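Supplementary notes for students who missed Thursday's class. We covered one full example, reproduced here. Read the sequence, then the structure, then the short commentary at the end.
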Amino acid sequence: MNEKNSWNIYRTRFLVRARQLTEPLTFTDSLGREHSGEAGDYLVEMSSGILRITSQALFEDIYVPLAPASLASPLDRVQKPPASAFVSRPEARASGGVHVRATA
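Structure (token representation):
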């Protein structure tokens, strides 16, 4: 597995992180179970942190990738008003001076 093949976020009913294998991989998980996969299969990290391998056919049939834009903060999608929405106009004061006040 090389560094170019980075983790992506996918969803079914739950969110998982996964990366597609570029070479065969075998490992034993924290529960003592042995997992093995071939190039093209997916290494999947569950929300609990447990890793497993899912065949390419099964993974691509079940999981839907989330677009990178959907991982951004919801605040990034809030439309900001244009600068022209804020108009400055003079405000008359009893003291005779003119002060500028920003209004929306």
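Commentary. The chain has one helix and nine strands. The longest helix spans residues 56-62. If anything here is unclear, bring it to office hours.
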